[in-house]
Design goal:
The protein has 751 residues and is of the alpha/beta class. The protein has two domains: 374 residues, TIM Barrel, CATH 3.20.20.210; 304 residues, TIM Barrel. The protein has 27 helices and 18 strands. The strands form five sheets. It has a seven-stranded parallel β-sheet with strand order 1-4-5-6-7-8-9. Strands 14-15-16-17-18 form a five-stranded parallel β-sheet. Strand 8, helix 12 and strand 9 form a beta-alpha-beta unit. Helix 26 packs across helix 27. It is globular. The mean pLDDT is 95. It binds glutamine and zinc ion. Its EC number is 2.1.1.14. InterPro entries: Cbl-indep_Met_Synth_N, Cobalamin-indep_Met_synthase, Met_Synth_C/arc, UROD/MetE-like_sf. This is 5-methyltetrahydropteroyltriglutamate--homocysteine S-methyltransferase. GO terms for molecular function: 5-methyltetrahydropteroyltriglutamate-homocysteine S-methyltransferase activity; zinc ion binding.
Length: 751
């Protein structure tokens, strides 16, 4: 084959569209407002526009543009193409797999490596049928060609596909490899010269041990690369260093190999570039993933050029470390960023420019390198993001473990005396349904049609309604309902110093869902109280305790773009101290119960087992800093959800919260066995699955509470839903909460 690999490329690009065109098309189709034909035409137009845009940005070489196309998810796309999941090219079948129907449950969804993107988990069975549908990928190539583009089709690799499936059914490996061979042949017949195949499973510790994974890698790829009737293979290893697998990759010798050399990856594995240089033979064309695909900072081009040079190869291509799907489209779409901050940032489009600058080198790309130098300098010298007072405060903190005193048992006595709660106390997780009126009030306020005062009044009315409803239902510990919060992280980011928020920085989370992560730009501090007004107003309306409601430091950090100039633990400590001040102010305002939510505690867990203990140490410490100075009689709650916590249950107990509410209804309280041994504090395993509109009956909640009582004594058990109620409507929430209180009363009566 003759076509050489492009000198400058990227691993993938946001699919959702600069104006979220795909999101709108998907949601219109699902709602029945457009038909399948219109949906397909709209999505096709977006793909072609994207290729045009990438060409205009300089990706002009053949095969420089990756066609990492998917309507819903990239793993589902590959699963359908190679046929481990049946569905062929049927659009409705694809969406049924992704979203479920009245009669079918959807595929499970889980986080894609350590990003905030979620993929659909294929469900496999030994001996199942594997029938490829190569037309899915061939038509992508052909439609691009018709529009004048020679794109590079994309597949998730066979090892990664199986490793991420449920279960990882390795007995299917041969059949799956055969299926990839069929897809490769179809691509070859369609005239394709390069195919991109991603094998990020090699960088993570998954359920299959490394040594086994390396064996499957060798087996699958020896067979695939031995085929004559295939395009050149561009094998990629984004999301970290392919530590042990590197030698195998070298000996397999695909035509081109991508390695992730992002600063974040090299921080964890500094020797990686040297090992890559040694392990990968010269006949393999090396593609250096130098530009960070999942953070938003402008690259330090001179430092990056040095890493490139250290690979000591005659010809190396330059790419991003991962797909750019994890960052927003362009900094140019932001009009309200502080002028000082804008030049420090680089979103997807700007990163393409950085890739090209590295390919051209400092002699030719003089302006780009000079601009990078300026950004590096102004950022390191900036007095707005470096705050002496914050640095001092963090520096004077004790090192290592911090612990609230007195011990839980003693605090518990003080709290019970103070609060006088019944056994099996009932509460909710914080948010109440976000009504259309509240959404409208927020939009009108933002648009300037509602004054600050009017908006405040609207929020207070809502808080009053929520308190009255909870009193009437008979809950024991009330919440104010979080009507003032657009989002549990963005709300705090907007009020804290050291963050910037974007207007258009949307990033796909899953399917049509996007989030707009704030950016931690510098040292974090709290100019003024953030939640006290709402919590104390709510408390003034009731004699029952109302919970103060904070998002914890780990979750704020996990759902933001992080600084790359200090360790994560430093930002975590700073956020924690700001929240500790809020705890103090809440106490002073008479709030006796304070919840610090940490649903993302599990999410930041490093991909490699070796790196996990250090993470858990600083994450737990940051949480404890928030509560460290709280009065013994102040009851500190925390809340966790969205993941299985079995693996980190010790750390959850180590948070040393007085009460922990945790998602459990869907798994039918499976986690209780873990909890029994590790937990000595109070706990509220959710008895009401809020992820579905179904109203749980009193009887089923009685059953769940009774099951919980087998493991946790009544003095330590709480009764609550699984998670916040903001995505639900009052018509389900009201009867569900009534049933919840009735279930508690029945269990207590029977005791
Ligand atoms: N307090 C938050 C709420 O109820 C917690 C949200 C969450 O767990 N994700 O909305
Ligand atoms: Zn939750």
């Amino acid at each position: 084959m003759t076509t050489s690999f492009p000198a400058a490329t990227i691993e993938g690009y946001p699919r959702i569209g600069a104006n979220r065109e795909l999101k709108r098309a998907l949601e219109s189709y699902w709602a029945g407002r457009i038909d399948a034909e219109t949906f397909r035409t709209t999505a096709r137009a977006l793909r072609i526009d994207t290729y045009n845009r990438l060409r205009d940005l300089g990706l002009t070489e053949d095969y420089a543009i990756p066609a990492d196309v998917a309507y819903y998810d990239q793993v589902l796309e590959t699963a359908l193409t190679v046929g481990v999941v049946p569905g062929g090219t049927d659009l409705d079948e694809e969406f049924a797999l992704a979203r479920g129907t009245d009669t079918r449950v959807p595929l499970e969804m889980t986080k894609w490596f350590d990003t905030n993107y979620h993929y659909l988990v294929p469900e496999l069975a030994a001996g199942q049928d594997v029938t490829p549908a190569p037309e899915r990928i061939v038509r992508i190539v052909e439609e691009a060609r018709d529009a004048g583009h020679t794109v590079r089709p994309f597949l998730v690799g066979p090892v990664t596909l199986l490793a991420l499936s449920k279960p990882a059914e390795w007995s299917l490996l041969n059949a799956v490899v055969e299926s990839y061979a069929v897809v490769f042949r179809a691509l070859k017949e369609a005239g394709v010269e390069w195919v991109q195949v991603a094998e990020p499973a090699l960088v993570a510790d998954l359920s299959t041990p490394d040594s086994e994974l390396a064996g499957y890698l060798r087996e699958a790829w020896t067979a695939l690369l031995a085929r004559e009737d295939r395009p050149n293979v561009y094998l990629t290893t984004p999301y970290g260093s392919a530590r042990e697998a590197l030698d195998v990759l070298g000996s397999l010798a695909p035509e081109a190999l991508h390695v992730d050399l992002a600063p974040w990856t090299l921080d964890a594995d500094p020797g990686y570039p040297a090992r890559v240089a040694a392990a990968i033979p010269s006949e393999v064309h090396l593609v250096a993933g130098l530009i960070d695909g999942r953070n938003v900072w402008a690259a330090n081009l001179r430092e990056r050029a040095e890493v490139l040079a250290s690979l000591s190869r005659d010809s190396v291509s330059v790419s991003t470390s991962t797909s750019l799907q994890h960052v927003p489209h362009t900094v140019n779409a932001e009009r309200s960023l502080p002028v000082e901050v804008a030049p420090w940032l680089s979103f997807a489009d700007e990163k393409i420019g950085e890739v090209q600058a590295l390919v051209a080198g400092p002699e030719k790309a003089v302006e780009a390198f000079a601009q990078s130098d300026r950004a590096v300098r102004t950022r390191s010298e900036s007095t707005t993001i470096h705050n002496e007072a914050v640095a001092q405060r963090v520096a004077t903190l004790p090192e290592g473990e911090v612990k609230r005193s007195p011990e839980f048992a003693e605090r518990q006595k003080a709290q019970h005396a103070e609060l006088g709660l019944p056994k099996l106390a009932t509460t909710t997780i914080g948010s109440f349904p976000q009504t259309t009126e509240i959404r409208k009030a927020r939009a009108d306020h933002k648009a300037g049609e509602l004054s600050d005062e009017q908006y405040r009044e609207a929020l207070k009315t809502e808080i009053k309604n929520v308190i009255e409803l909870q009193e009437e239902i008979g809950l024991d510990v009330l919440v104010h309902g979080e009507a003032e919060r657009n989002d549990m992280v963005q709300y705090f980011a907007e009020l804290l110093e050291g963050f910037v928020v974007t207007e258009n920085g949307w990033v796909q989370s899953y399917g049509s869902r996007c989030t707009r992560p704030p950016i931690v730009v510098g040292d974090v501090s709290r100019p003024a109280a953030m939640t006290v007004e709402w919590s104390s107003y709510a408390q003034s309306l009731s004699d029952k305790p109302v919970k103060g409601m904070l998002t914890g430091p780990v979750t704020i950090l996990a759902w933001s773009f992080k600084r790359d100039d200090v360790p994560l633990s430093v930002s975590a400590d700073q956020i924690a101290l700001a929240l500790a001040d809020e705890v103090r102010d809440l106490e002073e305002a008479g709030i006796k119960v304070i919840q610090i939510d940490e649903p993302a505690l599990r999410e930041l867990l490093p991909l490699r087992a070796d790196d996990r203990p250090a993470y858990l140490d600083w994450a737990v410490r940051a949480f404890r800093l928030v509560a460290l100075e709280a009065q013994p009689a102040t009851q500190i709650h925390t809340h966790l959800c969205y993941s299985e916590f079995g693996q980190i249950i010790d750390a959850v107990a180590g948070l040393d919260a007085d009460v922990t509410s945790i998602e459990a209804a869907r798994s039918k309280m499976e986690l209780l066995e873990d909890i029994d041994e590790t937990f000595h504090a109070e706990i509220g395993p959710g008895v009401y699955d809020i992820h579905s509109p179904r109203v749980p009956s009193k009887e089923e909640m009685v059953e769940l509470i009774t099951a919980a009582l087998d493991n946790v004594p009544a003095e330590r058990l709480w009764v609550n839903p699984d998670c916040g109620l903001k995505t639900r409507g009052y018509k389900e929430v009201e009867p569900s909460l009534r049933n919840l209180v009735a279930a508690r009363n029945e269990v207590v009566g029977a005791q």
